[in-house]
Amino acid sequence: MTVYVVGLDGADWSLLRPWANAGDLPAFARVLDEGVDGDLQSTLPPVTFPAWKCYSTGKTPGKLGVYEWYAYDRDDQSLSANDASDFTSREYWEVLADHGIDAGVVNMPTTHPANAREMDGVDVVAGSPANERKTLTNPESLKRDLLDAVPEYRVKPDLVLDEASPDELVAEGKRLFDQRFDAAEFLADERDRDLVHTTLFFTDTLQHRLWDHPEHLKAAYQRIDERLGELLERDDADAVFLMSDHGFTEIDEIFLPNQWLAERGDLVFAEDGTRTLLSTVGLTEERLKRVVDRLGLVSLAQRLVPKSVQGLFPSESGRVAIQDAAIDWTETKAISLGRGPVYVNHAAFADADDPAAAADRYREQLTEDLEALETPDGIPVASAVHDPADVYSGDRERGPDLVVEYTTGVDAPESIGGAVFGEQTEWLATHRRSGIFAGVGDDVSEGSADLDLYDLAPTILHYLDVPVPEDVDGDVRRDVLAGDPADRDVETGPPSAIGASDRGAGEEVEETLRELGYLE
């Protein structure tokens, strides 16, 4: 028998409940009618990296050493993309395997590179930015069998997202969704996995771009619903759990924190003549994408054009990814990485009488200024500005100095260039903290329950009668369980913390972020 977990990246009840109630998503409606469901509170910030690992470890970013897509190295003042090797914890399926419960994982972001470490008893089909032409699986021999069973399996879409029509995006999404479910069923049927997790990442991509096309989004979810219905009918399905790493909401305002810092003089740049020259002669990122798309060379370009070259092309909006900017670290006091973490460059205060005290005073003033900042419409930019110690547990290795919790509907990309407020890109919607949770099956309760993302790993471990690592941050939620799992005591097991196996191995991550629109 098998437990299935279906991860729907960015899924939000504001879309799914009305469609289910209207009869458009009968499988989702069945789960809501027969099982347990509720909101799932994500981490801060609510982004793919590290939210998926927060789910699979049951820990806050402070115990994982990863807070966003990128990391800031204070020692050498450099920025690098995170990947699977940067996370300092084992995942719940590794704990299951220790107890003889074999697991399979399909397409979860944060699992690349697939061979970041050995995991006996766990099959991994890595998520983006993995590549089916390179190391895709762990064990590596699994790739051959997977591609025999699902010959068309692809990790990433084979189209230029910015140039695709709504119909093309949905059609591509349906193909990818089918491949994810096919891979999950292959792991259950041919590899005898006792638990299978599969992530549908393209839901996030569609919602970013098609939030104003609800009928197209519904058509995409209807294909997911068809496959979910088949999953629910499988003879081996003990239980099916649904979850998302975060929710989604319409963008009300764009705020560029690094542009704001730059205009204050807190973030300083050196001259970058190469990008300016390319822009002058009309060689922009968008125009390059259109040429590649028309020539049918998307897959080839993704494989052959290194991120260092991609980063030279400016956006037509005038924005530059902060990771590509020529930062003057001798003058820079602070930098924002992603949609929340802000780092103070302590080296900028080295000449002060008391450098540590000067950096602290600056951090306190920056907090006050962010808390007071409003959009042009008079709405607070941030709902809160947190001390990382208040939202993260553990040693907070490589942690930020501030964590900005942006007001729902305010999108805060890390790019620079243009106005501080208001310049929209192709994204129409952004993340919010409230995602989805639902479950149905043997020993799963009925009704409603709201959970934290960190609760899922310990709850699933306990459901399968496996000790819960003592260093998790989440709780075993008995209110989503029934029968023996709800009644028996929680057994505590050894900690699941580990060391990072390698730092700074994320070039492929950067290339994928550009393709998806996370970098300008």
TrEMBL record:
Annotated Gene3D superfamilies: Alkaline Phosphatase, subunit A
Pfam family for this entry, one: Phosphodiest
Name of the featured protein: Alkaline phosphatase family protein
Span list, region Disordered: 483-520
Stored PANTHER family: BIS(5'-ADENOSYL)-TRIPHOSPHATASE (PTHR10151:SF120), ECTONUCLEOTIDE PYROPHOSPHATASE/PHOSPHODIESTERASE (PTHR10151)
GO molecular function, one term: hydrolase activity
